[in-house]
Amino acid sequence: MIRDPIREGLATGWKVIDAAALERDLELEADVVVIGSGAGGGVSAEILALAGLKVVILEEGPLKSSTDFRMREREAYPQLYQESAGRQTLDRAVTILQGRCVGGSTTVNWTSSFRTPARTLAYWKSHLGFKTTGEAELDPWFKRVEERLAIAPWPVAPNENNDLLRRGCEKLGIPTASILRNVKGCWNLGYCGMGCPTNAKQSMLVTTIPAALDRGATLVHRAQVARLAIEDDRVVACTAYGVAGNGASPSPHRVRVRARHFILAAGAIGSPGILLRSAAPDPHLTLGKRTFLHPTAVSAGVMPQRVDGYSGAPQTVYSDHFLDSIPLDGPAGFKLESAPTHPVLVGITLPGFGEDHARWMEKFASTQVVIALLRDGFHPQSQGGRVILRTDGTPVLDYPLSPYLWEGVRRAYLAMAEIQFAAGATTVMPMHESRIATSSWREARTAIQDLPMKALEARIVTAHVMGGCAMGPNPRASVVDEAARHHQLANLSVHDGSVFPTSLGANPQVSIYALAARSTTGLLAALGKATVS
Amino acid sequence: MLTRRQFIKVGLGGAFVLAAARFLEGPLAAPANGYRVLDDEAARMLTAVVPAVLAGALPEEAAARARAVRETVEAFDRAVSGLTPSVQEEVAQLFSFLAFAPTRVAFAGLWAPVEESTPEELKTFLARWRSSRFDLQRVSYHALTQLIQASWYGNSASWETIGYPGPPSLEGR
To answer: ipTM score of the complex?
Structure first.
């Protein structure tokens, strides 16, 4: 019998409110309101609650826990992801995977844990004038969150899907390394993306959020923040409404929270969206701008043997060769990882329909998947996208891929195909509507050179939305300062992936944890609390 | 005649694509007239389009095949019902677009109503949208095919053919 720490906690009397089930308006008061319960909100809430502050956490998604996590795509995607895991950019060319549940994306991510790359931090210092966010300054914060969330090398052998990436790279002399993971007693099942059924993954759902609730914090879930009420240079309250799974507001009842300080941690689409809806001051028109994605290209290879990519830890091997060997402001570099295979995910990512598609699906168990995450935001031709509001007030990301990035996608397809053939693939196909299935590296090289690179042809995905409330010392080029405090609003901070001024070049969870831990600890002094360690 | 704005609004969002899986293994008894969002006409059109999109993937035995098609349509319906109101509106508009003869002929190239078209005619229509120079048609192609594919591959009835054993059992571990 697997224990469910959330149901156990609820039985002890945690203050948890379902905003979608409210029968009257609710007025709450707090020292600090945390909007969002993902990587940034979770870490912030725990530190604040442990310091004795009265904390209210507002989360748009539902409270689900291990008992609900049944490893079925048909249940997990609508329940746990933004827009049923089908959120897209404005032109529909990029599919965005983002969590929408208590724990946010940490509840559904693949546990890959990387510190912010040193080159990225050095760039922020040299090009953007950062003064306090270097490798040395962040080191203690990385150590702290790594310890808190059990981030460590994974001692188990990679599954075949990951090992094929390693072997293919090895044949070509491309260095690879092992990915650290945030797990305790992991069963190596491979269903991290559908919520960890054994609570091994040290997501916010089973770590910081329960700790905050144990210390008396209040969690209001299925509560979508409509706007912040701003008076002069302060936020005085925020208003949220209950939302059902489909994003519709089922009741007119609102939750209004007044507080001394507000922390936005609603993710890099949600946080700019809330500020835009609130008509927050934006004197230099930086809000919602320079949003980055690590646009990700996908390549499928059919192996002679079974791969069973749905089984085993989803990401354990990576290569930074195509990042490290390219200057930051040179052609688009990319990180190589593998991606797990599950029937719906593969079914909708494979291009085409009918017999062609069915023949590929028959090779499902022998299919190996490599992904290339493009590093965006460092080159003049990679300025990212922009979060805007639809007429109904919901945020959407306008992110057209530039020719600079399409050139990177083509190089990524080439690199992935060569690696997959080196690993023994009999057929390799980039996930592109042209459906070129090639049977040798030589054939693939020619075919990929001729592929039309444009939106809705190449299947581009992302799970890493960054930017839009950029951090930086220069108020004319950013939204928050290096302490994550808003440049214009005295009692507002942003603690999530939206503060990154460029993409990271690595999966972002650890960077968000570390910055949130530092920013929140800095905030304690401002709120009259001693630091608690 | 559709205005440009109406035409653009017909664009079927992909936002709902994966939600197809949502209630997929609901009660096996088909809701007689009990779809959540699809009207009868949309359900009939989908019933015709599903075998074209899933050609080569559906069971061959007649009863199993009919059941697979029906469950895929039901999954599509339940999925759409769980999507944002704005996306539900887009789905409804796509079906209106395919039902209205002038737009069906002009933009889908289908002379007969969708539910009377042959699988070959429907495949030709989908292929035309796939390679269209209009983003809207390509977006609609992606949405329609991916939603149907998600509806089917979220269904455990599809797993044996593709060699997927299903999620592991945690019982007794």
So the answer is: 0.94
